[in-house]
Amino acid sequence: MTNISSPVPIYTTSGDVGGFYMDPYIYNGQGDWIGWVTSDKQVFSVHGRYIGWMSKDRRILRKCATDYSRSKRTPPKPPPPFRPPAHTPLPPLMAEIATNVIDVLDERPDLLPTIDTFAFTDDVG
After folding, report:
1. What is the pLDDT of residue 125?
2. Is the pLDDT of residue 58 over 50?
3. How far, in Å, CA of 42 to CA of 53, rounded?
4. Which run of H or E residues covers position 114?
5. What's the pLDDT tens digit per position in 18-53?
6. Cα separation of 2 and 67, whole Å?
7. What is the pLDDT of residue 70?
8. Contact at 8 Å (CB) between 58 and 21?
9. Of 1, 23, 58, 125, which alpha carbon lies 20 to 30 A from 39's?
10. Which residues are within 8 A (CB) of 28 and not within 5 positions of it... i.e. 6 or more apart?
């Protein structure tokens, strides 16, 4: 992805703001770091688990029936604190997604926990 220095809303398929993207970091709506995006648009959680990919319309997508037991990646250093903007633009029209693909922030936001959510366990799925 290109180097983005101001926050870009990540909208869900249902039209809600699901988070924010500031290259390479992903934050939830409260400003907590929940993941990052690689240069080839692959999305990983703060714990290094593969989640899916960032679509061209900036949704985090994932195939339903895929083996996600890929090896973990070392997360980048934690980002500086982030304060989400008070207002965001209206969501764009979203492209249809295949029936075997889900919008992670719409249907499985639990896959992108904050850094301290599972601080004492490795059971992040």
Report:
1. 47
2. yes
3. 4
4. none
5. 999 999 999 999 999 999 999 999 999 999 999 999
6. 28
7. 72
8. yes
9. 125
10. 18, 19, 34, 109, 112, 114
Which runs of consecutive H residues, i.e. helices, occur in 20-69? none
33-43 b/e (C-beta count within 10 Å ≥ 16 → b): bbbbbeeeeeb
pLDDT of residue 118: 59
d(CA 69, CA 21): 25
Spatial distance between the Cα atoms of 78 and 97, rounded to a whole number of angstroms: 31
Q: Count each helix (H run) and each strand (E run) in the chain, helices first.
A: 1, 8
Q: Give residue for tokens 């889900």.
A: 102
Q: Is 109 helix (H, G, I), strand (E, B) or coil?
A: helix
Helix locations, the chain, DSSP H: 104-107
* Cβ atoms of residues 34 and 46 within 8 Å: yes
Per-residue confidence (pLDDT) for residue 4, from 0 to 100: 56
Burial class (CB in 10 A: 0-12, 13-18, 19+), 1: middle
Contacts of 89 (CB under 8 A, 6+ apart): 9
Q: What is the pTM of this model?
A: 0.86
Q: Omega into 24 within 30° of 0, i.e. cis?
A: yes
